[in-house]
Predict the structure.
Amino acid sequence: MSQESCHFTLVITGAPYSSQAPQTALGFARAVVASGHAIDRVFLYGEGVHLASALSCPPSDEINWTSAWGEFLEQHSVPGIACIASALRRGLIDPAEQQRQELPASNLAAPFSIAGLGEWVEGVMQSSRVIYFHGGD
């Protein structure tokens, strides 16, 4: 008996180092892919956008969750999208917003991108399941 493949959109609302949301979501994503299912996209919202910061510098004895997620996203060709409203409020800027807002720098880590809530809506409509990883506040 064959098992039908599921497609997941993951929504992360908790920040790395102040919640377990990014860590738990990455473990879940790895298990999903290992089981033959697919991750359609990872959407960062609220405090979760901190996961996409290129300026995160954890101590050498801690995992760099931005790098770990970046490697997963690239390896599996999964889009990692930070909500633009959440990102701008928290100082997460891509080169386009840097220019538009006339800011001195950008700090969005590759391979993440910034987009609107339409990406979340598309994930809800296209994926078999949408799983939320909250910060627990």
Remarks:
- The chain has a mean pLDDT of 94.
- The CA atoms of residues 61 and 88 lie 30 Å apart.
